[in-house]
């Protein structure tokens, strides 16, 4: 008698990025398996990353957000997709889940509990928008922007109430995208951010250009915002957001975007191991129960720079994790290789890219003393070809080995390209010196023979080899002191520095560091006899290159010197106004 293996029962809870990626991969690997996908919402396999752009009518047809439909998935992949079904509990000993319907069937809401058995269970429950505890946060004009129903509710509210003033609480990814798109609708928009700068993945000096871009587009920013209450709307009285130490903000519409929290309560109740921010999984995406996998926004996976498990709420990792879980369920050996935290975000005409860790994050982990960084201001392609746009590129690396730790880029063009190159470099464990040797595509419309990535390698290599000692604007700001005289106070840098500006007189007159003297580079060698050899010379130019040349001249003539990282432009762009005379 021939034994016929019964098809596996595989149940996937969650039908968006990670869950649907897992389901379709499973079918491609196993035609006989019984695959069920359960989704709490109305829709499966939709592009939630595009939702803010649908809000601003950049994406004019909401249907384009629906990558697949339940009907198409059923016909193409023979997968049983059930929407508006919510997970209630997991019975691990009996390998059964309890679910209930949360939608209307024939005009009636059925809440009966149904039991579904599984051989393998994949959890892709995602994360819920975090709602901070404050009075009035549950008002009818306060929304989150995470799902298509959220989008539809906001669009309906704006149309019905004729909203003119909007507020976005939170200045992260979704907050900035929501704010920009509300502004595109013609609303007056205020962003309220709890931290000292918007877009927390980057450092303060890299956030300043983003803040200026938002203000240039008519938006109001309130940083270090401490909200105490949201007052209700009324026929003759607009809602107000009340704050400590700041005037109230009027808002007809409020979007809360202060992060998300993994949906782990049911998983934890089932006795599955939970970490600090999400479900703990191994490199095959298995939980502490070998028959239960978890993927996407609800899991912790290793960060390759910090070495610690983190939760990455991005569609790319979720899709890869879902596919990988399917491979392992079907007997293929596949291991998840961790994250480097690569992301890009559009802010009106600017793009910000980030990978790895910021300098602020490295310091918070106690690694500041072991970290160096550089800032450069290259163009996205050669300057002689029309349309060259400048960018700011900041790269952090280990002080001893040069291993890349993170990169942040802001500019109008070519930002995603360099972010992706640096993401590959960090994943490969490369050093900043290795960037010197990266061979990239070059033609005048696209780049330069010395690409910004190569230039970062040149500067970082010089720092590592002791060929250039940088001084950072953020450190100089801390050293600014005041001298009193004739009833006035004058800002100055410590007397240990001779501050030498090696730009042209025309550049110098447009603005310079406090206490600087102008010695143009082409006159520096014949001016050395005028320098005080008992003091350290702080040399700088506009973006750093001429300052570096001056540094090399000075060092080889016996002077103690430093070069201002990123030049005078880094001071201006980074918001270090107290250094400017």
Automatic annotation (TrEMBL):
| Needed co-factor(s) | FAD
Q: Which UniProt keywords apply?
A: FAD, Flavoprotein, Oxidoreductase, Redox-active center
Q: Which GO terms describe its molecular function?
A: oxidoreductase activity
- Name the InterPro entries on file: FAD-bd_OxRdtase, FAD/NAD-bd_sf, FAD/NAD-binding_dom, FAD/NAD-linked_Rdtase_dimer_sf, Pyr_nucl-diS_OxRdtase_dimer, Rhodanese-like_dom, Rhodanese-like_dom_sf
Q: Which Pfam families match?
A: Pyr_redox_2, Pyr_redox_dim, Rhodanese
**Keyword Transmembrane helix among UniProt keywords:** no
SMART domains attached here? RHOD
Domain Rhodanese span(s) in chain numbering? 493-573
Q: Which family does it belong to?
A: Belongs to the class-III pyridine nucleotide-disulfide oxidoreductase family.
Spell out the PANTHER family in the cross-references: NAD(P)H SULFUR OXIDOREDUCTASE (COA-DEPENDENT), PYRIDINE NUCLEOTIDE-DISULFIDE OXIDOREDUCTASE DOMAIN-CONTAINING
| Protein's name according to its UniProt entry | Rhodanese domain-containing protein
**Which species is this UniProt entry from?**
Cladophialophora psammophila CBS 110553
């Amino acid at each position: 008698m021939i034994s016929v293996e019964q098809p596996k029962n595989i149940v996937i809870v969650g039908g968006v990025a990670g869950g649907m990626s897992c389901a379709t991969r499973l079918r491609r690997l196993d035609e006989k398996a019984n695959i069920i996908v359960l989704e709490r919402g109305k829709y499966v396999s939709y592009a939630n990353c595009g939702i803010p752009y649908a809000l601003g009518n950049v994406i004019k047809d909401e249907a384009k957000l629906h990558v697949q439909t339940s009907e198409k998935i059923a016909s193409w992949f023979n997968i049983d997709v059930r929407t508006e079904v919510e997970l209630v509990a997991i019975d691990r000993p009996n390998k059964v889940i309890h679910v209930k319907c949360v939608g209307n069937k024939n005009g009636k809401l059925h809440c009966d509990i149904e039991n579904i058995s599984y051989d393998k269970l994949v959890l892709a429950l995602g994360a819920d928008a975090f709602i901070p505890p404050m009075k009035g946060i549950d008002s009818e004009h306060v929304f989150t922007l995470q799902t298509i129903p959220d989008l539809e509710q906001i669009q309906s509210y704006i149309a019905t109430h004729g909203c003119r003033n909007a507020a976005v609480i939170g200045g992260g990814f979704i907050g900035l995208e929501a704010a920009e798109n509300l502004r595109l609708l013609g609303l007056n928009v205020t962003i309220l951010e709890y931290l000292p700068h918007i877009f927390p993945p980057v450092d303060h000096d890299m956030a300043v250009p983003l803040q200026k871009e938002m203000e240039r587009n008519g938006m109001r920013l309130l940083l270090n915002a401490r909200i105490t209450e949201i007052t209700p709307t009324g026929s003759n009285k607009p809602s107000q957001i009340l704050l400590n130490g700041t005037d109230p903000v009027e808002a007809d519409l409020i979007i809360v975007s202060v992060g998300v929290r993994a949906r782990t309560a049911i998983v934890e109740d089932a006795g599955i191991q939970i970490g600090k921010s999400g479900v703990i999984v191994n490199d095959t995406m298995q939980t502490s129960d070998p028959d239960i996998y978890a993927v996407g926004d609800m899991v912790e996976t290793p960060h390759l720079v910090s070495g610690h498990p983190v939760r990455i709420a991005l569609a790319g990792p979720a899709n890869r994790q879902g596919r990988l879980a399917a491979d392992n369920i079907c007997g293929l050996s596949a291991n998840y290789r961790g994250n480097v935290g690569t992301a890009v975000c559009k802010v009106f005409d600017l793009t910000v890219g980030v990978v790895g860790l910021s300098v602020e994050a490295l310091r918070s982990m106690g690694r500041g003393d072991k970290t160096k960084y550089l800032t450069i201001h290259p163009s996205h392609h050669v300057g002689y070809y029309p349309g060259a746009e400048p960018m700011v590129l900041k790269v952090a690396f280990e002080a001893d080995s040069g291993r890349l730790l993170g990169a942040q880029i802001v500019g109008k063009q070519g930002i995603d390209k360099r972010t992706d190159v640096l993401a590959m470099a960090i994943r490969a464990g490369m050093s900043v010196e290795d960037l010197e040797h990266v061979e990239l595509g070059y033609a005048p419309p696209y780049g330069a023979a010395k690409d910004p990535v190569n230039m970062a390698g040149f500067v970082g290599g010089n720092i590592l080899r002791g060929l250039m000692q940088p001084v950072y604007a953020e450190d100089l700001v801390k050293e600014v002191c005041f001298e009193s005289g004739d009833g006035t106070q004058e800002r100055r840098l410590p007397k240990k520095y001779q501050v030498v500006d090696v730009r042209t007189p025309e550049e110098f007159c447009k603005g310079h560091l406090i206490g600087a003297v102008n010695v143009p580079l082409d006159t520096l060698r014949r001016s050395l006899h005028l320098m005080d050899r008992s003091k350290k010379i702080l040399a700088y130019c506009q973006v750093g290159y001429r300052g570096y040349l001056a540094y090399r001249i000075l060092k080889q003539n016996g002077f103690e010197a430093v070069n201002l990282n990123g030049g005078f432009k880094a001071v201006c762009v980074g918001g270090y106004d107290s250094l400017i005379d």
